[in-house]
Amino acid sequence: MAKLSQEDLLAQFEEMTLIELSEFVKAFEEKFDVTAAAPAAVAVAGAPGAPAAAAEEEQDEFDVILTGAGDKKIQVIKVVRELTSLGLKEAKDLVDGTPKPVLEKVAKEAAEKAAESLKAAGASVEVK
Fold first, then answer.
1. With 32 labelled, which of 46, 76, 82, 109 sits at a CA distance of 20 to 30 A?
2. Whole-model pTM?
3. Nearest-angstrom CA–CA distance, 6 and 65
């Protein structure tokens, strides 16, 4: 097997959706028994005397997690496809495999808008 250069790997990652990239990171962590935690998050968590409430107030990235498809599964799949760059099969698999993240690390406004769209389609949604 030919060894891939760093540029080749980055080009492959650029073509992946956020969900595919998230699944890859999880598989990588399991295979090599490592974690891909952000160093800044570790520094904040490890700072002595840092109040937990301050960390919650400063949160500017949110995850939109689909917890249930409801009765209108087809409508939910359509909304998932609109919100992501997933194809029909991938969107259906995501909806079938709930709870799953639809969007990760998005701004608060985008997370709220996505949650409203999914709820309007009949889905159960959680924003973290």
1. 46
2. 0.52
3. 32
